[in-house]
Each structure stands twice: as structure tokens, then as C-alpha cells.
Batch of 2 targets.
Target 1
Amino acid sequence: MRMELIQPFINAADAVLAETLLEGRVVLDTDVPTATAIASALIGSPVEENDPSVKEAIFELANLVIGNAVTSLNDQGFRFKINPPEPHTEDKGLEGTEDTEALVMSFDTPSGSVFMNIAMRYNRRRRQEREAVVSG
Amino acid sequence: MEQFAALVRSKDKQPIRYLVVDDSVFARKNVTKMVESFGGQVAGEAGDGCTAITEYERTKPDIVLMDITMPQMEGIEAAERIIRHDPSARVVMVSSVGYQENIVAALQKGAKHFVQKPVKPEVLYEVIKYVMGDDAVAVGAVTSGGNQ
């Protein structure tokens, strides 16, 4: 059977039977000298490694990247709510899970390498669960 | 930074007073630097929506520059509460999240305009001129020590 005849039924069933919720996190991962160099560039003057403005600048960078990406995703029909950024300073990265798709990209900048770690998880709820949430 | 003609209040030729609301200290500093380059004066700062409301009451600014994504209370709700209490409040939303629903929601709550981050000084300047309307006038270039 031709796929284009089947696809509308799949789409309709998906819309009626299940709701796909997306959750995700984005990590901007970089070393301290690179973070300091990026912060200095954003601020427009050199800052020391232990200056609090380094963290503030990286937070704002994350906000800009995520905010602009979510704006674009929203135009494609994906709805996200953004939470304010949090610092993670451990050497070990955040662990993934079986149901989480993760992707790591490296950006080579004049200030050094920045790794962007994006993870998404699909939470599918059946119709009864969805109605229970709405009525509750 | 680009030179702008200083914007002052028409009624008394005093600097326009701003309340800058953003949970990011970096963003507040950045916006502060911009509005000072327009000849403005930061009357107060807030890092969340709740503080923004109390700071608005305390400082009575001419314009509020309000972020959206913030802890405790988000910017759209804070803008709504400020405008409900003072319908003449001029609130400009400044956010990196610029999709249609967000913009419409903010405007429906009474915000006057929306500026998407990263903020370009020339864009913010034009928005402030537009939002202030006849209540502001450009008087000359800004110097490092203040208005000319």
C-alpha cells in the first residue's frame, strides 16, 4: 500500500490518541579560559577568570542561544517553556538516559571551543491520561 | 558605542528614567549601558517580576524594560500587574524568546512594544522614541558626563 495513503491516518490517530510532549536541556560546555575569553569579548573589556561577570555573561549567552532557537522552533509548531539557566562546574558531564536523545556539537570560536550538548525526551501520554490531567 | 541624540522628557527636559528588569545581571548591565548612551537614567533594577512591581511603585519610572523568562514571576505577568495598577505605565518587553504568541500575549496585557535579544542599540533607541511619543524630545549628542 502506498505510504501517502496511510500517513494521514497515522497523523490523525496520533493527534487523537496521544499527545507528544517534549522536554529538553541544552548545555553550553566550555573550559574556564574559553568562558573568560568569551565573557571579555561580550563585555568589551578583559575580565579575570574568577570574576562573577564571567558566569553572568555565559548565562546570557545561553539565554540568547536558547531563546532564539525556541522562537524558531515555535514557528514550526513545537512549544517549549524555558527555565532560567543553571551553572554546572563538574568535570563529569550530565548523564543521559535510554529515552533521551542527545547530540553534541563543537563550535570553534576565536575564544576557544564551545560544546553544545542538546538532549530531548519525548513524553507520550495516552488520551485517558491527558484527559485526567485536564480535568484534574 | 554609536552616538545618539539624547532623549529627554518634553515636560522638564530631564533624563528619561528607566526601570531595567532582567534576571541576568549581564543583561541589566548591557541595557543600562545602552540607555545611558541615549541620555537616560536608570532609576531602578529588578531581577524578577515581584521585585519589578515593588521597584515600579518606588521609582515611578518613565519606561520599564522587562525581560520575560525570569524566576518567581515572569515578565508578562509582572507587566500585566504593573499596568493594571497604573494604566499609563510604559512597559517594553525585551526577550530572546520572540515568537508570535509571546509577543501577542505581552501586547494584550498592555505592553507597548517588544524588542528581541540580542538588543541592538539603534533598535532600542527607536522603540523608546516611539513609545515615549510626544513625551520625549531629542536634544543633542550624549557626552560621557551626561547630556549636552
Target 2
Amino acid sequence: MQRYLGWLGRITLNALFALGRVCVLIADTFHWLLLAPIRGQGLRVRSTVEHFVEYGVHSLPIVSLICFLVGAIMAMQASYQLARFGATIFIANLVGVAAIREMAPLLTAVLITGRSGSAIAAEIGTMKVSEEIDALKVMGLNPTKFLVVPKFLGMLLAVPCLTILSTFIMIAGGYCLTTGVLGIDSERYIEQTSKALVMKDLVTGLTKSVFFAIVICLVGVYRGFQVEGGAEGVGRQTTSSVVTSLFLIIVVDLVFTTIFYFA
Amino acid sequence: MDRTEDYIIEVRDLTVKYGDRAVLEGINFKVRRGETFVILGGSGCGKSTLLRNLVGLMRPYSGQILINGQDFTAMSDERRVEARKRMGMCFQGSALFNSMTLADNVALPLREHTRLNESTIEIMTKIKLELVGLSGYEDFLPAELSGGMKKRAGLARAMAMDPEVIFYDEPSAGLDPIVAAGLDTLIRKMQNTFNLTSVVVTHELASVRLIADVVCMLKSGRIVELGTIAQLEASENPFVRQFFERRPEDEGGQSSEYIHAVTGLE
């Protein structure tokens, strides 16, 4: 019993410490993102653009390909049920709404987690192991300003942009399959899609994608700074950054889907 | 003769703890301007911890670290950044930024802390690299260099802002004797040419004999001896004698302890 209580206490304490560290990280990031530029302490624009290109532009091919394929898959799966009722045209509604509200933001976030979230954790972790973070501090350069904020801002811009594109591509995937394979008339499909979608769908998807971006970047950074020891520590924290990030993305998704469902 | 302005660093009653365990206790010393001050000790004696405190990477539990008469531990963040512009540090693994070329590494502090134009920065970078014997390597990435060259590049970066004091963490660790001696000569040269103060953490006796003006010997978090190299060589302290004579830890009389440690029996 005593051992169980001790275990519970340790877990609670560790969780509270971790929460504290996360809060400090968030506060620090927003300080250097919002307050410091106003006070004239600068923002690293060039580095931000470089990160935006890395996270956004360079992941465009893989995100496009996967979203296109998933769009086609969704259309096929929808047709499997809808064809029984002779309602194949409603594939347009299903694919459109699912892509814009759910699948495109989620899939983009998952891909960026695997591609860039893990890279952030590994990069910062390696820098910590090789004393590069210490070197920055000793030079009087703040690691948050220097490393975190450009990544954060780059991610914050890249993920929503990618989400918009991947929404279109996913719908295009559904369109190609439905018109090409299932023989639905192209104009009817487009018309049906545009009737199905409203502005609120786009707002839902984009709101989610902004929070996904925050989660991916902060989890990567946090795990990176948590690295202790050598290469093994980097590996462990990189893995755990992906797992944590995916979990939190699903949680955030659930929260916002609930909010928009009732709102 | 002993004016406070003569001293660039002064450590008063420094105590550092990891949790409840004190790793440094009651450390007191002064570093005179322009001298090479060596912190010497075996593995795990707290010398790296002491260095991390001196450059402000760790906060001490108690005590003061005065740099140019100002308490480094109690400064505001802005003042600490200012103070840091006047100090440089060479890391054990050089800690060069792997994604940047040598020139960018050296230029980084200049680009971030000064408003010099790009052509001036380029010239200054060349001068610093020339100083450590690495001219012509501007466009190399750290991964393309040998260990000794990386350390030299690290020194060039530490010198970028023309600091008053440079901290070296194990400068000759992991280098062959010839390259290590070259680095020692470089440390000496920097000190002579620029009247630079150097604080060197090391356990290499050979390099201590070459570079040290004052040696501070640590054991288990306390200073056991402080003085010139000649004074240390003449010291009666058994630990200092053992260290300088490179005698191994006494094995005799420990067998009972060993049995106790292994079996738990008295």
C-alpha cells in the first residue's frame, strides 16, 4: 500500500514538474515571439523563412501524394455503401466534408509530425548533447529566440498553408476516382461538392491546423531539450516526441471537433 | 599592490549542490588580469561544475562570482548578456554549430551582437581564423575537420568578440600529444598577444606545466592547493604529491571493503 502511494506521489510530482517545464517553454516562446520584437529585441526573419520552406515547401510532394491517394480511397469506400442506395453522387459530399473538416488537417499534421516534429526534437537534442545549446547561452544568445521561435513561426505558417492545399488535393483525389472510375459526370460532381461545403467547414479545418502546428513544434522542442546523455537519449526523445505529438493531435482534434459540433 | 582592479574574477564562498549533495564547497579564489589560471583535478572532482558556474550555465547554491567587480550570479538577464559579450568559452567538444560553415560560426556573435556591416565581419572572421591557423578553411563544415582543428575553430569563435577572458574546458582532451601541445602554445600566444585572461580546466599535467601561471587543485569539491606550479610541485599535501607523481589509488587495505561491497558481509 505504502509503495503504491509512493509510486502515485512520484508520478504526480513528475507530471507536475513536466507541466511546469511546458508552461515555462510556452511562456518563453510567446515572450520571444510577441513581446521581444515590440521591445526591439528582434525576430529572426530569415531563419523563419528557411524553416517555413523546410516544413512547408519541402513536404509538399509527400503531403500531396498521400492526400491525393487518401481522397481516392475515401471515394471508393464511400461508393461501397452509397452505390447500394443509388446515391453515388453523394460521394462528393462525403469526401468534401470529410477532407475539409477532418482528414486533410489531420493527415497533414500526422505527416508533418513524422517529417518535421521528429527532426526538431533530434536537432535540438543533438545540439544539447554536443554542448551547442550551452555555446549559444555563453555567447549571450538566447536559445528560445535563436532556435525555438523561428521553428515555431515557420511551423505556424506552414501547417495551415499545407492544410489548405492538401484539402484541395484530397478533394481532387476523390474527384478523379469518382469521375474516372465510377463514371460520375464531372460537372455534377463539382457542383455537388460546392453545394456541400460551407465557410464554417474551412474555419473548422484551419483552426485545427493552427493548433496542430503549435502542438507539433512545442512537443518537438520540449522533447529536444529533455535529451540527456548521448545518441541514445536523442533517439529516445525523438521517438517519444512523435508518440506524444500524435496523441496530443488526436486530443486537440477531439476537442475542436466537439466545439465545432455544438457551436 | 593587491588592488581589486587587478582581479578580473573573484569567487567567494561558492557552494554548488546537486539535490542535497554538495559538489563544490567553500570555493574561494581570485584570478588576476592577464594570467592563465588552471583548475586542476581528477575526474569527478567538480572542476567542470566550477567552470559551468563561472560562465553562468549553472546557478550556485550560495556564494558569489564577481566578474570585473560585478556579481555575475545576481545580474539581470540584460546585464548578463552584456557581460557575456566580454567572455569567450572553448568547449570540450568544440561545440561548433554543425549546420554552419566555420566562417559563419565565427561570425555569428558579431552578426548577433554588433551592427558591423557584412564586409567588416568577413574581414574580422578571416583575422580570427588566421590567428588560430585555419585560414583557407572558411567554407568548411565542422564535420569536415579533425578534432584539433575543431578546437582551434572553437577558439576562433570564442575570440570573435575580442573578449577579456576565455574559459577552456579540457582543451587537450582527446587530442594526440603533438596537437595538444600546439593548442597549449596557442593558448599561451593568445595570452601574450592580447593580454587575455585564461581560465583552463584540465587534468593533463603536461599542459599545466606549459601554460599555468596559477594552479588551483580540486579534490572532492574543495580546493586542496592553490599556487604557482613550482609551489604545487613542492607541496606536502599527499593528494597533490600523488597526482603529480601519477601514483594510482592505494590498493592495499581495501580488500575488506571490497568484500563488504560485493557480499554485504562485515
